[in-house]
Design a protein that fits this description.
Layout: E1 9-18, E2 25-30, E3 39-40, E4 43-45, H1 52-64, E5 66-80, E6 84-98, E7 105-111, H2 123-131
Parallel strand pairs: 1-6
Antiparallel strand pairs: 1-4, 2-3, 2-7, 5-6
Length: about 140
């Protein structure tokens, strides 16, 4: 028997788990693509030569016109979507300056701990909430 291997596309991204002084988490709703209308932590793809922290600062500025303070890495999640393998580095942080202007998302909400599951999260983001988010909070 001949074994055929298909290599799945690999995507490495960063995500910001932005919190406020009340302990709420900032969630954004995708406005495009296959996963349109699903919710996610804001962030995006790392570019060549960038550290995860540099990529996250750039992505949050591009998507939200906001500067954040990155506090620490919460977790790195690996998830197999139907057409690609995702590696997502998730960082805990808070707003330093800016107004959270939506440049790429169709909606956003501040969610308290008891509201987190009131939106339809992307599968990888859902894993972060279910497995890591509050167990690793400082």
């Amino acid at each position: 028997m001949v074994e055929i291997q298909t290599s799945m596309k690999q995507i490495e991204v960063v995500a910001a788990i932005i919190h406020d002084s009340e302990g709420r988490i900032f969630a954004t709703q995708r406005g495009y693509g296959e996963w349109k209308d699903y919710w996610e932590f804001p962030g995006g793809k790392m570019e060549a030569g960038e550290s995860p922290e540099e990529a996250l600062q750039r992505e949050i500025w591009e998507e939200l016109e906001t500067q954040i303070v990155i506090e620490r890495l919460v977790t790195t999640v690996e998830y197999d979507y139907p057409t690609f393998h995702l590696k997502m580095h998730c960082f805990w942080g808070h707003i330093e300056s800016g107004s959270l202007t939506l440049k790429e998302h169709e909606a956003a909400r501040w969610l308290g701990k008891d509201e987190l599951m009131s939106v339809d999260w992307l599968p990888a983001d859902s894993e972060v909430i279910n497995n890591s988010l509050f167990s690793n909070k400082p």
